[in-house]
Amino acid sequence: MPDPHDGSDRALPWLPLLTLVSAFALSQAFRSVTAMMASGLQQDFGLSAQELGAFAATFAFSFGLSQFFVGIALDFYGLRRTWLCTFPLAIFGAITSALAPNYAVLILGQILIGIGCSPAFVVCTLFIARRFPLDRFAAISGMALGMGGLGLVLTGTPLAWLIHVSSWRTGFALLAGLACVSWLLVHWQLSEGLSASHQRPQSLGHAFRGFGVLFLFPQTWGILSLALVSYASFLTLRGLWLGPLLMQRHGMSLVETGNVALVVSVVSLFSPALFGHFDPGNAERRRWILGAVFTMASIIAVMAFVPLGWVDVGGMVLLALITGSGVLQYANVRSSYGAEMAGRAMSVFTMAMFLGVAIIQSLSGFAASWSQELGYEPFAGVLVSVATLLALGATAFRLVPVKRQNL
Prior knowledge:
Blueprint: H1 14-31, H2 34-45, H3 49-65, H4 67-77, H5 79-98, H6 103-117, H7 120-131, H8 137-148, H9 150-154, H10 157-165, H11 168-189, H12 204-214, H13 218-250, H14 254-277, H15 282-305, H16 309-322, H17 326-336, H18 342-373, H19 378-399
């Protein structure tokens, strides 16, 4: 096994990492297919907007709620067995979706896909933590996160063209085939390669109790408070409100809005690698995280009170750039707990991020309605609520004491 403290890049397991990144990219693709398949699904099954929304949300909920069990499995059974046994559910779910005769089976397919993809990025981060030098964790995690974003590109123009010339069922079939290739590559390349610092729990019961122990550490509450709002705030604006904001507030066309969305998406692909490369290390990382989150809250507040087109477009691009600081939060989680708790800690952090998406998106809808009732435009209410939640999350992260573990 390569020595994780060996500084030589040739001694590091880059090929196994790339195979894991391919699975993470497919996870990104699965979670973003709704936009391309929406019209076909509505036409074939007569779905209402609410039913289409439930279809899109099913992946996030099953993905997020699975993190509890994923964390236990990763620490008890290891990366290889957990991933190889879980990811086939995503393949089976994609096949089920491609063949779905009705809406209920389609939802079942989404549940299976969400569960199957649930270990994807956590396995990447733990593999990096265990097999690469600790001082390069943030940089390599940022690179992996950015490369995984290629899954979003796949579900853009390429998938749209495929669905246009065939159907949404062919889209699911393609993703199922690519997932099979990814599983075979990981099976071929990935070995467990535990470091000496990693201690396997004595039993499954011990692993379950270990989750409870996680919440006894004071830093857990600050980490989760920020995780609930940081990623969710950007995704709420990018994935839910960007179109209505630009078209209704500024009268932009659908094509112009699409161009802005493309720029924002491309910037968000590269920003994690940028922040990972300039990771300041344990001593200064928390300060960087706080600075980035408070800057995001300030930008969103300016967008709320200065309703100019260039402010909103420029603000979204800046948010896409700064949201890459999320990779520093992963590095902070890694450095805040011992190696034996890393799987559970990463999984709880990931679960908080995805559950936060559902919570923040729901609250933003209420904020939009309330703003209108008070006589203001709905987007001001959305932006103020998101900025406030970001500031509250960052404040909790700042105030909760930190007790770092010996690594």
